[in-house]
Every structure is written in C-alpha cells, then in structure tokens.
Amino acid sequence: MSSSNKSLPYTTKDVHYDNAKFRHRSFFKVIYQTFFTSNVKRTSLSCSTGKFLSLLLIFGIAYLMLTHTSPANSVTDRLGKGVKNSKDKLVSYGGSRLGKLLRKPPRLPPRLSPDQKGFNNSSSHESDNLNAGSKWIARQQSVKDAFIHAWSGYTKYAIGYDELMPVSQHGVDGLGGLGATIVDALDTAMIMGVDEVVSEAGSWIEKHLLDRITKKGQVNLFETTIRVLGGLLSAYHLSGGEQGMKLTHTGPKPTVYLETAKNLADRLLSAFTSSPTPIPFSDVILHDSTAHPASGGLSSTSEVSTLQLEFNYLSAVSGDPKYSIEAMKVLEHIKTLPKVEGLVPIYISPQTGEFSGENIRLGSRGDSYYEYLIKVWLQQGTARDNNLTYLYDMYTEAMKGVRHRLVQKSIPNGLVFVGELPYGSDGAFSPKMDHLVCFLSGTLALGATKGITKEKAMKDNLLNFEDLENLKLAEDLAKTCFEMYAVTSTGLAPEIAYFHTKDFSEGGLDGGNKSSEYVKDIIIKPADRHNLLRPETVESLFVLYRITEDPKYREWGWQIFEAFEKYTKVDTGGYSSLDDVTTIPPHRRDKMETFFLGETLKYLYLLFADSSLIPLDKFIFNSEAHPFPIKGTKNDS
Ligand code: DMJ
Question: Matching InterPro entries, A to Z (predicted)?
Fold first, then answer.
C-alpha cells in the first residue's frame, strides 16, 4: 500500500511546506528584480511605449503601497483573539475605494502553527505538493476554528462546570465537578497553538482545581484518571515539564500541573488500597480519600485496566513508584485469570478478583482493556523487550481471538465488523458493533508497526504474520467505521450499528442515505441513533493515515468533520450531541462531551497536520487522547 502511495496525489510529503516560497521581499527588491533582472523586461524598457507603461506600473504600485493598510492579523492571530466562527473571517482591509478595486489580496503565507513550521519541501512535484499542503493546512485551520468555537461556548455559559449544555446555555457537572472540559481541552489548545485558551484553562487550573479536588465528593476512578489526571500530565509534558516539548510559553509553570496531578492521584489511590483484591473499586470520594464499589459491586473490565499509562507516567515524572505499582497490579492479576482466546468478560469483581458474567465485547466496558495491553507495553520504549512482555503476549492472543471469534462480514457488500459474544464463547454471536469499537482499528495499526510507517516497517522487515493480519483488519475496520457515518442522512455515525448477516436481518432500519452502497449492510435501531460527538473513528483515521500514509483517511476525516460542522455546531457557541443521525434536521441533545475537545477535534487536527507533530513512535496517547512521551525517546518535535 505505502509504496503505491508514493505516486498518489498527496502523501505525508505533500504537506511539507516550503516557507521560502513566501519569504518576504521588499518593495524595492521586487521592482529591481522585475525590471533589471529580466531580459524581456529590459527589452520593453528600451522603447518609449514600454517606458511609459513601466512608469505607469511603478506609480500604480507605489500608489497601492501608500494607500494600503495591513490586513487585520492573520487568521491564526485573530482566532487567538477570540474570533468565533468562519463568518468573522471577512475582514475590512481599509484604504480607498480605488485601492480596493485595484488591490488583490496580498499573497501571504498562511500563518503556521508551531507544528507547521520548518516543513521542508524536497519533492519534485513542488506545486502539486504545495496545493495539497495548503489544502490540509486550511482544513487544519478549520478544525482549530471549531475548537475555538467549542471553547467559546463553554467559557460563555459553563466555565468551571464539567460540561456545556450548548442549546440551553448552561453548565452541568456530570463528572464530579472538577471542570473536566477545561483539563480535557488544555493539551489540545497547546497542540493547536491557541495561546488564549492555554492561558485561560491554565489559570483556571492554577486557581481552582486543587481546591475542587480537596472539597469534591464522588468521582469515577476511570473517568477522572483518563480525563483529568491524563490531561494534567500531558499538559505538564507539553508545557516543558521533564524537559518536555515546551509547545507553549503561556499558562502556569509545568509544576502546577504536576503537583495538582499528584494530589489528585493520591486520593484516587484509595480505590486500589481499599479493595481486598488488586482490582480497584470504581468510585472515589475525593475530599476524604475513601473509595467504594459501584452499585452492584462490580467494576468494568475496561475501567480497571485503563489507568496504567497515567499512573506509570506519574511515577516516572514524580519519582514515586507507588502509583505505577498499584496500577500495574491490576494487569498482573488479570494475566492470571482464565480467558476465551485472550478475550475477557466486561465485568470484574473487586471483591473476588474474578471476572463476572460471560459478556464479551470490544464496545462499552470492554474496549480499552485491549487498547492498554499494547499501549502500556509500547510506553516502555527501549525497556519493552525485557519488561512487561506478558502484556504484548496477552494483546497478541486477544487480537487472534478477535479475528477468530468476533470478526464477520456483512451482506450484501462485505463490510468487515467486530461483533459480540453476549453469552460467552458457547453462546450466539451478535452482529452488534458500538461506535466505541472503532478505536480498535487505530490500536491494531499502532500495535503492528509500533508507530512507524508501514512502508518503513516493511522495508526493515519488521512485520510478522500477526502484524500483517492485524494491519489488514485495521484497514478493513476503518472503512466500516467510515461507512457507519456515510450511510446516514446526516453523515454522522450512530452510537451502535448492527450488520446484516446470513443469520441476522431487520428491514426498514437503514441510516437514511439511500445513495450509500452499504445501506442494506448497516442496520440502525431506533434506540441507537444518537451521536455523542465521539472520537473513535477519527482517532483511527489519524493513526491509519500516519501509518499507511494513504490520503483517503484524511479525506474521510474531512467528510466527517464537515458533517459535525453542519449538524452539531450551535451558533451561540459549542457543539451538541444529537438524538437521531438518520433524520434531518437532527434533534440536538444539548450536551457537549468533554472528549469532543479533548479527543475528537485533537485527532482531526493531527490527522491534517504534519506527521512530525506528536509522532506515534515517540508518544503514546492515553484513552482520552492525552499524549505521554514513550520512555527513552527524545521528543524534540
Ligand atoms: C472517552 O472518554 C474515552 O475514549 C474512553 O476510553 C471511551 N469513551 C470516550 C469517548 O467516546
């Protein structure tokens, strides 16, 4: 695939950007070069008509120079100053009416975000590359605009609350009241270079978060770890902590993020230490550092196994091993439990340490167990091969199990999907796939090449049979996840889809887009038609684009982004989840989930960015898209 990509219209190289093309040249240099370095021009100067026309041209240009006032700051700058939507991009250039008539917009370089600087265009198809590069830079800018619009709604109506209700213009504390949107969004703002948001979010954290942590009540261990602890830790690294990247020069000192993270984690540790087994309780009372099981007593398998990247990284940067030790006990314990070809039930008991029930799926409550097996191993970097190989083995076995037990193809058009075993290994297969399962495509690709491109991995002979199988499944699954969007009237995926198979069919429940080739393959039940602005598909498109360099993943991501813009954007600020993606106009649910800023927009931005921004062989993204450096790598991008 990747070798053939070389001849496609755009590859990662195409986003390389030759800033020299737009280097500033002075007015006099332009005139000099125009009239005294070209033979043709010299000839024209030698006849009197030519001289007259030349003088006219010089006066014309001089007139424009004098009447010209600089355009308002660049789009990037204006966005940084709070411009809220693309309509506001129409700016007045000033000057006289004649000037306006004569003047073309100056050919200025697009303002580059930190990541876009230093591109080096060495391709022979320079202008094609430049066009393709400009196209993706413009699209990246649109995602940044969307982020600023989302943030502006949140700050207007919900600052300090966990989430924004953009339609009713309220805030709501659905995650325990730690201002989750602020912490989840912070590193996205750093990556996008939106300094105003970095500074606003950073100072809110500095002023309020510690106080909230010491006073608030019940929080969910998993949600608080991936969103708040994860967000603080990546902000610590990206703002220069641990000699990290220093993507930003604004906001508080990195140690503010680290100290807040430590205080929070010290309280979260009670979920581990109060449990009679290595499986933590699901809920923590922050103000008194106590913990208890969820009602019903069980923890979700994905929740207890999706804490380790965060706790490991905190141990690494704080120098205190206690966080890592407690979190890793969970995986060491799960290693000893019986499984079905590496697949595990979605519930586990903190009281007994055993799995509970037989329901096996890679959707809700199961998903990130599989994600963290490989990511925690990858996080070890250079220490991978002498440490934690059991995680790699568990992952490899589980993915074989997925391919053997859970993967089927739809009819009539053969979309590859991952179904469920709700009654365990001996029960019937269910052709149900949560949108959440779409994370798997990216994880499979990452696990196969360990973050380098497929082309390089193939050239260096690094892919074994399992890797190739997993990569193939990753690509097939990404297609299916994309078609889950394309098959609906709105172009947005439902929360859950069913697939038409020889054993399962239900008429009249299609997504509404009759022109989709897959309208008969994908079944959407009325109760599953909502869309929560989830990230999993664009997350996988981002990873697959980085690994395969196939531009179709970028085009798919753009199509999804446009649908979000069209149907979920709320004019007054923010984006809203939807009740039904199969009807137009879709009814809005009035909720902007924190992961829309923390994950969805971040992954879209990175999908359109140069691959040197947060490279996948140097960073590992936690389940909420917060990047942590891989051990032993130097992150100087
Ligand atoms: C996020 O909070 C995380 O990605 C989590 O692991 C699963 N679900 C949501 C987004 O859909």
Answer: 6hp_glycosidase-like_sf, Glyco_hydro_47, Glycosyl_Hydrolase_47, Seven-hairpin_glycosidases
pTM: predicted TM-score of the whole model, two decimal places:
0.82
User: Quick one: average pLDDT of 605-620?
Assistant: 98
Residue nearest to atom 6 of ligand 1 (CA): 623
358 catalytic per annotation: no
Q: Which of 145, 163, 495, 580 is catalytic?
A: 495
Q: How far separated are the first and last CA of the chain, in Å rounded?
A: 27
Burial class (CB in 10 A: 0-12, 13-18, 19+), 353: middle
The reply to whether 46 sits in an annotated binding site is no
Task: Read off the tokens for 148.
Answer: 């600023």
In the annotation, is 455 catalytic?
no
Catalytic residue among 184, 200, 223, 455: 223
Q: How many angstroms does the Cα of residue 478 sit away from the middle of ligand 1?
A: 17
Give the model confidence (pLDDT) of 232-275 as tens digits.
999 999 999 987 677 877 889 999 999 999 999 999 999 999 99
The first and second tokens of residue 472, run together, are 């193939």
CB burial of residue 25 (10 Å; 0-12, 13-18, 19+): exposed
Clarify whether 536 is annotated catalytic: yes
pLDDT tier for residue 124 given thresholds of 50, 70 and 90: low
How do residues 560-596 score in pLDDT, each as one tens digit? 999 999 999 999 999 999 999 999 999 999 999 999 9
Instruction: Tell me if residue 296 falls in helix, strand or coil.
Output: coil
